[in-house]
Amino acid sequence: MELEDRIRNQIEEILVNDARNFSEIKRMAAEDEPFDGEVLSDERNLYNRIINGYRNAVNEVNKLLEQNIGSLSGFYRIVESIKEKKDFQEICSQVVGCILQDFGADYCSLLFPEKGETLCLEGIHEERKFLRIHSNSSLLANKEFEDKLAKMADEDGECVRIEDVYKEACFNDVDFPSVVRSVMCLPIQLHRRSAGYLILTHSLPKFFHENHVRVLKILCSLIGHLKLLHQGGEEPAHLPHLYPPDREDLEQPDAYAVVLLGFEARDSYGRRTPLSKEAVGEIRTRIQNALEGKESVLFYRDRELIVLMPGISSDSLQQRVRCFREAFHRWRMDRMEDHQNTRISIGFSVCEGEEDLSRTLEVAALVMHPEE
Description:
The protein is α+β, with helices and mostly antiparallel strands and 372 residues long. Helices cover 48% and strands 23% of the residues. The chain is built from ten helices and eleven strands. A hairpin with a 3-residue loop joins strand 9 and strand 10. Helix 1 packs antiparallel against helix 2, helix 2 runs parallel beside helix 5 and helix 7 crosses helix 8. The chain starts with a helix and ends with a helix.
């Protein structure tokens, strides 16, 4: 093993150097030349160096063991969080959220380019998590960054791990909108072709290690299989939601969930434009019909909606987000002739305990409008 070879080489180097020093001492003694130091102290130094070498090796082994346990624990939590989910977007949201929580990434994205409608799930972790589901495939509000990563991942075929983007010439013309140093991109393959990408970034260089790669490769294979089963994310209509969780069991008095809803239409030139306020008002009525308890939906930034949900925990938030998405799809189906190309973008987070709600809204604005 590589680690054993390094330990052996370090000990051999210590012994060789000691043998050279001892030979030099004998030569100097034979020539009756004075020399400093005692033989016993030299031997003591030798033993101390060997002990320190073993100690460093054990510390390195323990560090690798902790990394492996942390990665496997994170993977286990991902599997546990998605094993009873049937909606593909909800599964991807859980995956992104768990990666931000357990793998230490500052940013995580699952990107599935499609000819009809691209599915992109992005999340950041700035004091708290905030996730966004949308059809705009521009990662971190930067199309060049996305294109370069996707090309590199397709060429590599397995994983692209960049220790420092500032040292890579191919990113010289990329203007990163936030602090990005370490980057990892893994393709999600189906039928030997890339069906999507898992992308992670961090503000520190050399943050991602080989253990991240090994575990996330397995995760990408699992996501690819789920993508195939869910046929692009559409949940079969005949599958009932068995044993829905009790609303009272999932409520947390100190929790406050926030959901932002943005809408885009495509004009006659194929450009994305904000949906009219009248249409957003119609959608707001549909969302109101799906509200529960003390939830409320308000206009936000003139043509967006914000849903405030006191008492909603992280466990029940995904279920509520799905209800809002289904309400939008029902509205679009009723107006398919005029709004066939209308898309929804959903961002959500939970403010719990003593966390500052204003900070949650700041992060929400950053994720929903990274171009500003």
